[in-house]
């Protein structure tokens, strides 16, 4: 059960990051009391730290907008 709940919380955090929320805000919103635990779990699931993931999403969004897709 713990791994299922953790997975759901990380999926929610990923969605929040994709919407532009910062990593620290997303970790709190998803119920993580310890930011370092959130970072470790997120990196294990997605292969990137939340901050790197957030930065990559912003870069992709900027690139997409510059190409006139929005």
Task: Throw out a few tags for this protein.
single chain, 70 residues, mainly alpha, 4 helices, elongated
Folded structure, characterized:
The chain is mainly alpha-helical. The protein has helices at 2-18, 23-29, 35-46, 50-66. Helix 1 crosses helix 2. The protein is elongated, with a radius of gyration of 13 Å. The relative contact order is 0.14. The mean pLDDT is 90.
Oligomer state of the chains in this structure: single chain
Order of helices and strands: HHHH
Euclidean distance between termini CA atoms? 40 Å
Largest sheet: none
Q: What is the structural class? A: mainly alpha
* Beta content: under 5%
Report helical residue fraction: over 70%
Shape, per Cα inertia axes = elongated
Q: Helix segment count?
A: 4
Provide the residue-averaged pLDDT: 90
Low-confidence stretches: none
What is this entry, summarized?
The protein is mainly alpha-helical and 70 residues long. 76% of the residues lie in helices and 0% in strands.
What secondary-structure arrangement, pairings included, does this model have?
Elements: H1 2-18, H2 23-29, H3 35-46, H4 50-66
């Amino acid at each position: 059960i713990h791994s299922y709940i953790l997975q759901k919380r990380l999926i929610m955090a990923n969605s929040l990051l994709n919407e532009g929320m910062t990593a620290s805000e997303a970790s709190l919103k998803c119920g993580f009391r310890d930011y370092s635990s959130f970072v470790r779990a997120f990196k294990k699931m997605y292969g990137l730290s939340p901050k790197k993931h957030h930065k990559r999403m912003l870069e992709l969004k900027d690139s997409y907008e510059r190409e006139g897709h929005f």
